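The instructor's notes for this session suggest beginning with a concrete chain rather than abstract definitions. Hand out the sequence below and ask the class to guess, before any prediction is shown, which regions might be ordered.
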Amino acid sequence: MVRGKCLSPEKEKGRQKTQGGFRPCLCTLPSLLGGALADELQLPENYADEQQVQDWLGSFRGRRARLDPRCCRISQPVSETAWFAAGMDLGDFEQDNTGSCRLSSPVPELCRTEDCCLGIDEAGRGPVLGPMVYGICFCPLSKLGDLEALKVADSKTLSEAERERLFGKLDQARDFVGWALDILSPNLISTSMQRRTKYNLNSLSHDTAMALVQLALDQGVRVTQVFVDTVGPADKYQQKLQERFPEVEVTVRPKADSLFPVVSAASICAKVARDHIVKRWKFLEDLGDLKMDYGSGYPNDPKTKEWLAQCLDPVFGFPQFVRFSWSTAQLILDGRAVPVRWEDSEEEAGGTPAAGRGSGTPSLLSYFARREAPTERQSHRFFHERGLETVANL
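After discussion, reveal the predicted structure:
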């Protein structure tokens, strides 16, 4: 994958030869793009000089440039996940997709000097596949009208192309719009939910959202209002956030991503990031010739269920792309994977007693248990043969 830079040829018929090969006349750009694509990308009608074209291409650096290679010059290589936005490089998460990763845009200077509102939303809460991405977006209260003018909307109501186009607009508006993301891997989600101390998805979501608000405050953003798409009961969540951030006015609502533009913007940022992560997921496991046609990733999707069954290893389970704590995955594990009996597990009703619980076999944990009374140490035969004993006091 390369980043392309369009060159400005002189206005003459045909092409002008350069060091990089041939470059087209600007008047041929629409034909090279194709009519439908040119319409989709809103190619400007008047593109008489190089600067106009550079500005236009720059405004769409959040999209894959499906340009004919003849009108591009190879400049610098970029990763598969980094091409779509200069400020959203997913390379770090791509290198290690087993934990979490945080990304953020530069903070506009205006957000440090004026009161701001901040929206919170997530993408990928329900799927059994892929990460969950939490996003915030913030802008000055004085610029809310400009944000609304971008016509942001709930990401779930938009097509992928529309989301990327709107993210491109948000990226263009970086003089008054900022954002940040927390990417939580499937492995992190599952291990968190199945640890000994109960930590459910709602708690994980709440903590992630609060951490992002704190990040904005630590970066100097003057946050005075926070709007949140609820997770769980809205009133309890709002009270929790208000107690954590008493100086901020908090509003938690169901469907907030369709009610407040700043939440819609956060939703778009999170969804765009998740879409690209899922498409370019780097599997650590060798899946052989398994096709990556896993459907929507939601538990009730037949394609997703079929793919889960095909990628299951009977001993090692699922690849880390799968949230193994989801009930859909658990059912497949229970039915198709090799059963494992833990020696110190509870005795199953009507079954064979587990080790250490009436079976006569000591539990594995019994070897590490702290003994209540110290074991009496047997003296060496030298002392025994000579009738010598250890005394505590004289």
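Then share the key points. Confidence is low (pLDDT under 50) at residues 1-41, 43-50, 60-86. Residues 91-279 form a domain with the Nucleotidyltransferase; domain 5 fold (CATH 3.30.420.10).
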